[in-house]
Design goal:
It is found in: Membrane. By secondary structure, the protein is an alpha/beta fold. The protein has ten helices and 28 strands. The strands form seven sheets. Strands 16-23-22-18-19 form a five-stranded mixed β-sheet. A five-stranded parallel β-sheet has the order 25-24-26-27-28, sandwiched between helices. The relative contact order is 0.07.
């Protein structure tokens, strides 16, 4: 019975030993050329071997076991495969085989013997990876040195280098771990990352060998422990149209992963409040250990009821619950469009009014005068007797134009009889024997306007013949006295070069009105375009016959 229990115990040990071998199919080892190494068979954890089991090393493809002679450069001893030292030609595959009476198992080892990079104490591809976290106390461990003890079973002293340079242990944050092949780093920072090399001397059969390991240290930044806070919302409102689509999003920032906010309406989850709402959660990592957590849901079609509630976003941190809300509002009327439209309309109206006024200016002014006629009688008297002084050329036998007919018949017919103006016409209203110069000077000063009738042929322009130099000076004084002059052409005059300088100046300043009618009764109507232009430049009438006047 005892033998049965012993057999069962041995089977359990065997199963555990062989079950541990599932870590790798081909296990990789690497060693610097010229340095010793001891390779462990990955099937079992040494030195747990019993006399009932046999472990043997083979060079791959060879049926001959590796020698057990201790003075051989490559030999097996105490279950380990030793290379003292390793050479480049040793790179390759090796097998470890464990046999018992009824079972057998083996594993393959891939050994790489390497050289250091030029100018460095390590090979960039043959390093042990280790990680520490910032702000904590980290430990850099020099691995796989358990087999390299001296004859007194003591661990030789380990020397450390950073980026192949000694002296980095002078930093007060760093110290050697007592009883361990390790360096402690207090308050780890990102500046501590880099390549660390540990080196010791191993003595075997009276000869010393270097044993070195290079560790690539990675510093992982510790997440910042900050108070979570809402990024959005912040108790605000948003304007949305009825029936529109809107995405309600809530997100928070923190250094804590897994902190997820959630939506509620009327103390209910949004999906319970409205089954058309679909809430989605997300989390995004940010630099320096920060994180953004969020949740959002879609309102595919905003309803009237959605405007009546606040949508609350919550998250729980510690024993506290934090809350922020969004409220939907109807959009405010866009008065900007109305203002722009009104402004454009006003500008258009102004330009249209100016355009209409420019075309119908004369008719508008004449209509205004006639409409306000009852009020114009209250105007203070300017002590003028005549509305206009008429100066025209005297006809000769060779003249082709009937200036006398126009000045003595047509002009009085329209302006005096139809419009009620009071004219002084030289040659009609002056008394026989009166001096022309004195009469003209006096009557012009008593008139509100001066009408000068012009003809194209200089032979008909007898104004210059009937006056003296004093009257020419009087013509120049018209401007100084502030009397408005109305020039009327009986026919287009091509050249004003022969005209007096005062006439040319008046034409340039006030322009001329050209007579385009004939001497028929149809041209005697005050409502024609020509007479409207004349009346426009005439002063307003206080009284007179306006019957039959058409604008």
């Amino acid at each position: 019975m005892t033998s049965v229990f012993l057999l069962i115990g041995r089977l359990i040990v065997l199963i555990s030993l062989f079950g541990a071998a599932k870590g790798c199919v081909i296990c990789d080892y690497f060693v610097l050329v010229g340095e010793p190494t001891a390779i462990t068979c990955p099937i079992i954890t040494l030195p747990v071997l019993h006399s009932d089991y046999n472990l043997t090393w083979y060079k791959n493809g060879s049926a001959t076991p590796v020698t057990t002679e201790r003075d051989a450069r490559i030999h097996q001893r105490e279950g380990l495969l030793w290379f003292i030292p390793a050479m480049l030609e040793d790179s390759g595959l090796y097998e470890c085989n464990i046999r018992s009476l009824n079972h057998s198992n083996k594993r393959t080892i891939n050994l790489t013997v390497f050289k250091n990079n030029n100018g460095l104490c390590f090979n960039g591809k043959m390093k042990f990876e280790q990680k520490v976290t910032s702000t904590n106390t980290g430990k850099i461990i020099c691995p796989d040195l358990e087999q390299f003890k001296d004859e007194g079973n003591n661990q030789p002293e380990v020397h450390w280098y950073k980026e192949c340079k000694p002296g980095f242990l002078e930093d007060k944050r760093l110290l050697l771990a007592e009883g361990e092949n390790a360096v402690l780093i207090r308050n780890v920072t990102v500046q501590d990352r880099g390549n660390y090399t540990c080196r010791m001397l191993y003595t075997y059969m009276g000869k010393q060998y270097n044993v070195s390991r290079t560790i690539s240290l990675e510093v992982k930044e510790k997440p910042l422990q900050i108070q979570p806070e809402f990024i959005y919302p912040r108790n605000n409102t948003i304007e949305v149209e009825l029936g529109s689509h809107v995405v309600m999003e809530c997100n928070i920032s923190s250094g804590i992963n897994g902190l997820i906010p959630f939506w509620q309406v009327n103390d209910e989850d949004v999906e319970i409040f409205d089954k058309t709402y679909r809430e989605q959660f997300y989390e995004e990592g940010l630099p320096h250990g920060l994180a953004v957590s969020g949740t959002k849901f879609n309102i595919s079609k905003v309803k009237v009821k959605d405007y009546a509630h606040k949508f609350f976003c919550h998250f729980v941190y510690g024993s506290q619950q934090f809350t922020a809300y969004i409220k939907l509002e109807y959009p405010a009327r866009n008065i900007q469009g109305y203002l722009i439209g009104g402004g454009v309309s006003s500008v258009f109206l102004v330009f249209f009014t100016l355009f209409i006024y420019k075309i119908f200016k004369i008719d508008i002014v004449l209509w205004y005068r006639d409409s306000c006629h009852p009020f114009l009688g209250k105007k203070v008297s300017d002590e003028k007797i005549y509305d206009a002084y008429v100066l025209y050329p005297k006809n000769r036998e060779s003249c082709l134009y009937s200036s006398d007919i126009f000045a003595l018949k047509i002009l009085p017919e329209v302006l005096e009889r139809q419009c009620g103006y009071n004219l002084f016409i030289l040659g009609r209203d002056d008394l026989p024997g009166e001096a022309v110069i004195s009469v003209a000077d006096e009557k012009i000063r008593q008139s509100r306007r001066v009408i000068i009738v012009l003809v194209p042929e200089s032979s008909c322009y007898s104004i210059l013949e009937d006056v003296s130099e004093k009257q020419l000076a009087m013509h120049s004084a018209l401007i100084q006295d502030g009397i408005k002059v109305i020039l009327i052409e009986l026919e287009k005059i091509q050249d004003y070069a022969s005209m007096p300088e005062s006439i040319r100046y008046i034409k340039q300043k006030h322009g001329v009105i050209r007579w385009k009618g004939d001497f028929s009764e149809r041209s005697h109507s005050a409502g024609t375009r020509f007479w409207k232009k004349v009346r426009y430049q005439m002063p307003s009438r206080k009284s007179g016959s306006l019957s039959g006047l058409h604008l």
